Amino acid sequence: MVKGTQAAQLGASGPAPAGALLTSERRISGRRIAEIRGDFPALKRMVSRDGRESRVVYLDNAATTQKPQVVLDAMNDYYERSNANVHRALYTMGEESTAAYEATRRKIQRFVNAARPSEIVYTSGTTASINLVAYSWGRTFLKEGDEILLTEMEHHSNLIPWQLVAKERGCSLRFLPVEDDGTVDLDRLPLLWSERTKLVAIVHMSNVLGTINDVKRVIEFAHERGAPVIVDGAQSVPHLPIDVQALDCDFLAFSGHKMCGPTGIGILYGKEALLSKMPPFLGGGEMIEAVWLDHATWNELPYKFEAGTPPIAESVGLGAAVDYLSSLTMEGIRAYEEELTGYALRRLDTVPGLSLYGRAAARGAVFSFNIAGVHPHDLAQFLDREGVCVRSGHHCAHPLMRKLDVPATARASFSFYNTAEEVDLLVDALAKAREFFS
Ligand code: C6P
User: Fold this and answer.
1) What CA–CA distance (Å, rounded) separates 16 from 5?
2) Is 260 annotated as catalytic?
3) Of the candidates 62, 125, 68, the residue with the CA atom closest to the CA atom of residue 389
4) What domains sit in the chain, N to C, each tagged with a CATH number?
5) Do 230 and 249 meet the contact criterion of CB atoms below 8 Å apart?
6) Helix 330-348 vs helix 312-328: angle between axes, to the nearest 10 degrees?
7) Parallel, antiparallel, or unpaired for β 147-151 and 120-123?
8) So what's the pLDDT on residue 192?
């Protein structure tokens, strides 16, 4: 990151002087960002910018992150050497496959500091993890008249499953409102709480506003009143140090592909006391203990929730991703991304006509914005021609878009391998877009 004074000057005076921002020289845990970037083949992708070939500026990390070579190699190596189904084979390749699959579970356990590996359930992603809780826990423990408390900033993944279960069980949903600055006012918790509130489902970090919610406070509040809390960690686990025991959350859902791992794999952390009382969600192979023609008994945790052939190669890739992130340390990643966030905010504020959505003090490097008179899809397409990848649309958060009173936004989201130079390239491209569309 640029030094404070340099950043302030640049922020105040528009476009950055070329070469002033040697931020790829910054380090995370002793490694230069330039070196870290070299670990990611996709970041070497060349695109045409101003008629010249240059590196792609990938700023869609909230949608999915790029993968380091170690992840690609681990998956390739697995398929070349050890490919076999897990928990079924007695031959060497099957044993290797099972060992790798279970090794990643223990890595994830350590990564989020779960008490035991049986609390780590493999799923296909955050969406599947939340659906698992909604259908298994929700259908079992929610009764007619019960209430579920959410926020207005939830991704559809942490809203639709609760709508479906609420409809089925005769429950209702209540919502902590999003304030003008993009925060959730937790002082409203007592106002929205009733003795019928049986669950809180809350996003840790918004994929639109970047806001980091004080989920620990929510959890303490809910627990004092006997309700469990599920945290949507899709955007927080890849960017913050997470300790599920310190947070005391009951469930935490996250996706491998947003944390340098492959697609097709996600995690549900759940407290053993809760998971053990929940019925299976999907039925099939592996999740059983014994089966008769008319009934069955269930496997122990976490296998009760892992029906069918799981994402094995993906677990190998995720294990390599967790090793990679751990080598940088999540504390180091967060510290760097916080600096990058501050710089990006200062620079984005210099773009004339740009409205930024979300001004929370506690936030991550996700920036949703619009430029007056330019449709966000046109803006994203223009930026693509400049070699800058951003997402535009509703970001699977229709109610939040309505609250912001916009049909859609453009969104730039950063990861630890992004640099202040890339912030500048984004800002330069936005200035060009404004000129072009005016
Ligand atoms: N958000 C985005 O571009 P899956 O698709 O299951 O891996 O993750 C779903 C999900 C749940 N919660 C939050 C807060 C999320 O951001 C996402 C995924 C992507 O913002 C794709 S819509």
Assistant:
1) 13
2) no
3) 62
4) 18-59+329-437 (3.90.1150.10), 71-327 (3.40.640.10)
5) yes
6) 80
7) unpaired
8) 98
Query: What is the best residue among 124, 132, 157 to mutate for testing ligand 1's pocket, by most ligand atoms within 8 Å of CB?
Result: 157
User: What crossing angle do the helices spanning 312-328 and 92-112 adopt, rounded to 10°?
Assistant: 40
Written as six digits, the tokens of 86 are: 């897990």
Model's pTM, two decimal places?
A: 0.95
Tokens describing residue 398:
């229709």
Is 203 in contact with 213 (CB distance < 8 Å)?
yes
Determine which one of 171, 260, 389, 396 is catalytic: 396
The model's pLDDT over 43-63, given as tens digits with 9 standing for 90+, comes to 999 988 778 898 999 999 999
In this prediction, residue 25 carries a pLDDT of: 85
In the block, tokens 């970001």 appear at 395
Residue 339 clears pLDDT 80, i.e. is over it: yes
Q: What is the pLDDT of residue 89?
A: 86
Residues within a 6 A CB radius of ligand 1: 62-63, 125-127, 155, 157-158, 203, 207, 232, 234-235, 255, 391, 395-396
Cα dihedral 331, 215, 398, 402 sign: negative
